């Protein structure tokens, strides 16, 4: 007799790691609506609405804005694949896992990489990036992580973009943990290529990577000589998402598109600035309580993200044991260090619907209970 299997019944967790965050109930409901085919004319109307909503969230109407079918890493790779050609000089700043990922992608795509690195928890100084640009004026691209998910560090992206004004070098920013959570103005600041994800500030399931491309970056893409691999070719994706009649490119994830439509709609209903403010207040409250409890943060205080906090693990404490107890005893997920060279940390995300002071209190109360039982006294 064949084995029988019961329907899935996963536990209900509070997802306060580095992502994914919990999904808004209305977003889940959107995924239960009737599915259309990926070439259905009615779906094409929905695609146009998603693009318009995403332009409003990215706050860029010129150039090209659309979501890729794939997670944030797809947006990262699409940027390198489309904006560079083999032999191009590419400057990449890194002080955490995802900055180093961009560097690795640049190497794999045959770029002449100029790596500008700093220690984990620090910011790569704009002065050093600009010095590298001065030394390599032929650089085709300069890339940086706006919100480093592995450390909780916020890069001064606006200042970098302003300093690069007038440069022929394109500016690419990893906005995976910043879109929908902190101030981001690609058009106003002068960022040529942004990429993000759906499972953090946008409060969606993972599976899509919203990108936003400036007009001058699009011109660079259209003039390139070497071909781009098919799946991440932005010019082909534009023919499906923007041009009408739509040209087939791939089978789009229809239910994820419904979810993204609803998540973007809810964000604009709340107000972009209001959502930034909510994340700022929740993060500040959480970090204040962490410090009051005697724990230390990894990030440079002057560049600390509100929505992602990296907490140093006290000496002698078992990082993974605490994570597991939070999960098993409190149904709360938090992250640990990412990558073999990462310091010993816990990473706590307060994003999307979890960006509230009530959620912050629930997480820190659970931490205090677990750490007190492990021999670390709770905060006063």
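Sequence proposed for the structure above (380 residues):
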């Amino acid at each position: 007799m064949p084995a029988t299997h019961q329907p899935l019944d996963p536990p209900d967790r509070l997802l306060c790691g580095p992502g994914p965050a919990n999904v808004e109930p209305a977003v889940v409901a959107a995924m239960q609506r009737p599915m259309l085919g990926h070439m259905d004319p009615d779906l094409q109307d929905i695609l146009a609405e998603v693009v318009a909503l995403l332009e409003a969230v990215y706050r860029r109407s010129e150039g090209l804005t659309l979501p890729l079918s794939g997670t944030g890493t797809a947006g990262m790779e699409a940027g390198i694949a489309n904006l560079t050609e083999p032999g191009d000089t590419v400057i990449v700043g890194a002080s955490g896992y995802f900055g180093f990922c961009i560097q690795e992608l640049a190497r794999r795509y045959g770029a002449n990489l100029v790596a500008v690195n700093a220690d984990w928890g620090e910011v790569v100084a704009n002065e050093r990036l600009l010095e590298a640009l001065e030394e390599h004026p032929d650089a085709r691209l300069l890339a940086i992580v706006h919100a480093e998910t592995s450390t909780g560090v916020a890069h001064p992206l606006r200042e970098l973009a302003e300093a690069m004004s007038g440069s022929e070098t394109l500016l690419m920013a990893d906005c995976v943990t910043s879109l929908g959570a902190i101030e981001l103005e690609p058009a106003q600041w002068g960022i040529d290529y942004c990429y993000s994800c759906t499972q953090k500030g946008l409060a969606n399931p993972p599976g899509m990577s919203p990108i936003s491309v400036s007009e001058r970056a699009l011109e660079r893409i259209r003039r390139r000589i070497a071909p781009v691999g098919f799946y991440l070719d932005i010019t082909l994706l534009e023919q499906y998402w923007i041009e009408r009649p739509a040209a087939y490119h791939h089978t789009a994830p229809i239910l994820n598109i419904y979810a993204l439509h609803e998540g973007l709609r809810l964000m604009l209903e709340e107000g972009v600035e209001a959502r930034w403010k909510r994340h700022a207040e929740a993060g500040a409250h959480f970090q204040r309580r962490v410090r009051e409890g005697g724990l230390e943060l990894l990030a440079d205080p002057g560049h600390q993200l509100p929505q992602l906090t990296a907490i140093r693990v006290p000496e002698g404490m078992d990082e993974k044991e605490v994570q597991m107890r939070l999960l098993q005893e409190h149904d709360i997920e938090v992250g640990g260090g990412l990558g073999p060279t990462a310091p010993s940390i816990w990473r706590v995300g307060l994003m999307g619907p979890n960006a509230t002071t009530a959620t912050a209190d629930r997480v820190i109360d659970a931490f205090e209970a677990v750490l007190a039982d492990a021999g670390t006294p709770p905060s006063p």
